[in-house]
Design a protein that fits this description.
The protein is of the alpha/beta class. Helix content is 30%, strand content 19%. The protein is built from 7 helices and 10 strands. A 5-stranded parallel sheet has the order 2-1-6-5-8. It has a 3-stranded mixed sheet with strand order 3-4-7, with no helix packed on it. It has a two-stranded antiparallel ribbon with strand order 9-10. Strand 9 and strand 10 form a beta hairpin. Helix 4 crosses helix 5. The longest helix is centred in the last third of the chain and has 19 residues. The chain binds 4-(1H-imidazol-2-yl)pyridine (4FL). The site of 4-(1H-imidazol-2-yl)pyridine has 12 residues, from strand 5.
């Protein structure tokens, strides 16, 4: 998969992507991530990418021309890699979920447009196939949301997760929260590992884990059970 990120702050990505599973995916050539500096596509001598909103109001709005130029240049720079999806990280988008990570992992190319300032000129949205929010809060920019989405998508790519940490044991994989896990020692400061996990009885273990997942989900995220039979 090829991912392009159009951003004013490409250096923000160095930490999260220079380490972790994403780096492994890049090293193994499962994933390539390219960065495009939006400011390079400003056309005036001040390299201005934002401006004050028509109609008044405080804050600055991202201008359309540099973003259009950047996206067009990114698309023309390499051969067509399809299927592809252009994504804008935006608090006004649909909330990112595990389902969406799995869906985006099926594309061969993703292009992220990260906003800063108070928002985008509305015409910029026409460039994108979808807007995605990572939650109901306002950040200083779209870079962290893009990193979150890319991280979640990267681990869904075939060959990124080892058998030891397969996606099947993830929280949310079947729409429930994860079950409690234990490792050695069997007893720690008086807290013991549930007997069933030491029994070697796979049916009982499976049943216990499902019960625990349901209990945790009921307690902490009852909303997840609403659209379940
Ligand atoms: C984007 C917040 C996606 C949450 C500021 C600029 C944001 C965001 N999800 N805040 N972009």
């Amino acid at each position: 998969m090829l991912i392009d990120v159009i951003t004013l702050f490409p250096e923000m990505f160095a930490g999260p992507f220079g380490d972790s599973m994403v780096k492994r995916a890049i090293d193994n050539e499962i994933l390539e991530i390219r960065f495009t500096q939006l400011r390079d596509y400003a056309f005036d001598k001040h390299k201005q990418v934002d401006d004050s909103p028509f109609g008044g109001g405080s804050g600055m709005v991202l201008k359309p021309e540099p973003v259009y130029r950047a996206v067009r240049d990114v698309l023309s720079k390499s051969e067509e890699i399809l299927p592809r999806r252009v994504i804008i990280t935006d608090p006004g988008g649909k909330t990112f979920k595990q389902e969406k990570a799995k869906e985006l992992a099926k594309y061969n190319r993703l292009i992220f447009i990260c906003g800063h300032y108070e928002g985008f000129d509305a015409r910029i949205y026409d460039l994108a196939d979808e807007k995605i929010s990572i939650g109901d809060y306002v950040l200083t920019g779209g870079e962290l949301p893009a990193m979150v989405i890319i991280d979640a998508v990267a681990r869904m790519l075939p060959g990124v997760l080892g058998a030891a940490d397969s996606a099947e044991t993830d929280s949310f994989f079947d729409g429930l929260l994860g079950f409690p896990q234990y490792t050695r020692p069997r007893e720690f400061e008086g807290k013991v590992v549930p007997e069933v996990l030491l029994s070697g009885h796979h049916e009982n273990i499976k049943k216990w884990r499902l019960e625990q997942s349901l209990k945790l989900t009921r307690e902490n995220r009852p909303d997840l059970l609403k659209d379940k039979p």
